[in-house]
Amino acid sequence: MRRFIAVLVIAILMGTSIPRANADVEEVILQVDGLACPFCAYGLEKKMMPIKGVKSYDVDMGEGKVYLGLDKDAKLDLEAFRKGVKEAGFTLRDVYLHAKGTIEKTDAGFALVLGPGGDRLLLFEKEAMGKKYHQGDDPKNLGLGQELARQLEEHTGSKKEVRIEGPVHEHEGLPAGLAVEKIETLG
Amino acid sequence: MKHVILGAVFLVVLAGCSAQEEESYHFVRAIGGKGSEPGEFREPIGIATDHEGFLYISDAGNHRIQKFSKNGEFIKGWGKKGSGKGELNRPMHLTHGPDGNLYVAEYLNDRIQVFDSEGNFIRFIGLKPDGESTFDAPGGVAVDSKGFVYVADFYHHQIQKFDAAGKLLDALGNPGRIWPGNLHYPTDVEIDGEGNLLIADAYNNRIQKMTDEGKPLAKWGGLLGFGIPSAFKGYFKVATGIAQDDEGNIYVADFDNDRIQKLSPNGGVTAILKGSGNESLKYPTDVAVDHEGNVWIVDFGHNRIVLYAKNK
Questions:
Q1: Using one digit for the tens of pLDDT, what is the confidence trace for B39-60?
Q2: What is the DSSP string of B24-89?
Q3: Chain centroid to CA A183
Q4: Does residue B152 belong to the interface with chain A, where contact is any CB pair within 8 Å?
Q5: How far apart, in whole angstroms, are the C-alpha atoms of residue B185 and residue B158?
Q6: How far apart are CA B126 and CA B142, in angstroms?
Q7: For a tag site, which of A53, A144, A146, B45 has the least CB within 10 Å?
Q8: Mean pLDDT of B230-258
Q9: Domains along chain A?
Q10: Which residues of chain A are within 8 Å of residue B187 when distances are taken between CB atoms?
């Protein structure tokens, strides 16, 4: 029960349970297992293009990577991507985002705010991928190294936009977020 | 007992690899190259020839069809990305029907589009009156001498059969693995000289022969035609395209093995076309054989069409 409440509080603080971010997500890269031939690649295109907000599709069959461009005001619905990949007959390994916004410090940790009034993506250190979130852990300390924490702290409160690249990161018991692989100040 | 079983399996494998006189082919020329100009290709997929020897190539990345002479000279191209009449979205395998028209499987438009040999729109097949399609990613199409149209439906794992007027009659084969008649992501279909279907059962790594009513007749692809993927002779790794010559020999685009395998009418391998250096194949998706026995190959990985001829 305590865990449920903790998760609920964090979800409310983050304002979302699964990232349904807006078009500040500039590109979505899906790492897909089993993309072997053009019939597969075009088959996946067939399943992904009808998803609302997807405006472009490109694929690197050798690397098993699918590049999705989004409409300007599109919502990003990861569940729809997962469903599309599954319907096409493949396994979705990772979702990688290029997203921009401002940094905000919340009770749940640092978050990327996607545009004015936009959704928030909780930020993690990439090394935290695969670690488990345990009841009672302070999510602020979850896989956030000193150097990354310092960088994010610097951006907190400033109105400067940053672009962050990295894989979508889902800890059991926490809202999905972004594992920071690259951070760049814009403007 | 174990030894008896092992011995039996060994004999079956040997039978599958039975020595057959191997024929040899040589590289003649290549046409195309990566690009979007006339005569160039971006992800070519399918090839068909007509009675006069003209070549028709589906240029899937450019959403168009290109026509070439039998000497490989560019004649014309048609189509652009879209869903209207004459427009295309990922054209895949195509065939020249007995009515003289060209039938093109459109993967993302879920339809067969029929053109005359000059590229003029004739009609669609596979669309219901409400505009819904009976297909989910049609990869290949064939037309028999009576005008029946057969379509390899990738995501339904079946062959759909239409009458000459375009009315859906039946779905042949069942989704599944290993057993005769089961299909797993079929990508192409051809009609043999006896009116039976030859099917590129792509992700079962084999080809199957069925009657025009869907009764399984034979399957080839390694041990007992179970479709175990392998680079051994007679095995396939994703069999994406199929063709037959005037003598009943079968040619299979063995995509992930970068080769074409030629099979006798009874399924024995008689030649492997692979090339080397600049003449090598990379991810071939389709093959066609003209009336002179020349083998035209869609060399997908090199964005070109390659001609091989038999050594005298």
A1: 999 999 999 999 999 999 999 9
A2: -EEEEEEEE-BSSSTT-BSSEEEEEE-TT--EEEEEGGGTEEEEE-TT--EEEEE--BSSSTT-BS
A3: 14
A4: no
A5: 8
A6: 14
A7: A146
A8: 97
A9: 20-96 (3.30.70.100), 100-185 (no CATH)
A10: 39
B171: left (phi over 0), alpha (psi -120 to 50) or beta: beta
Beta bridge partners of B308: B27, B295
Is residue A15 scored above 50 in pLDDT? no
Closest CA to B89 of B117, B124, B49, B51: B124
Structure confidence by residue, pLDDT tens digits, A34-77 = 888 999 999 999 999 999 999 999 999 889 999 999 887 777 78
Segment A131-144 mean pLDDT: 58
Mutate to test the interface with B, among A35, A37, A39 (most CBs of B within 10 A): A39
CA–CA dist B17, B24 (Å, integer)? 18
**Considering only alpha carbons, which residue of chain B is nearest residue A34?**
B203
Q: Does A60 touch chain B (CB under 8 A)?
A: no
Q: Chain A closest CA to B307's CA: distance in Å?
A: 22
How far, in Å, CA of B93 to CA of B75, rounded? 20
Compute the distance between CA of residue B292 and CA of residue B167 in angstroms, rounded to an integer: 35
Q: Whole-angstrom Cα distance, residue B60 to residue B62?
A: 5
Which pLDDT belongs to residue B6?
A: 56
Token pair of B135, please?
Answer: 């297909």
- For A87, the closest chain B residue by CA position comes to B155
Across A29-38, A86-95, A124-133, B184-193, least confident range: A124-133
Asked if B255 has any chain A CB less than 8 Å from its own CB, the reply is yes
The SS3 assignment for B7 reads helix
What gap in Å lies between CA A14 and CA A40, rounded to an integer? 37
Of B136, B155, B300, the CB nearest to A38: B300
CB-CB under 8 Å, A42 with B256: no
Task: Among A15-29, B34-48, B71-85, B260-274, name the one with the lowest average pLDDT.
Answer: A15-29
Which strand (E) or helix (H) includes residue B113?
strand B111-115
CB contact at 8 A, B65 and B54: no
Report if pTM > 0.90. no
CB B108 within 8 A of CB B157: no
Cβ–Cβ under 8 Å, residues B125 and B112 = yes
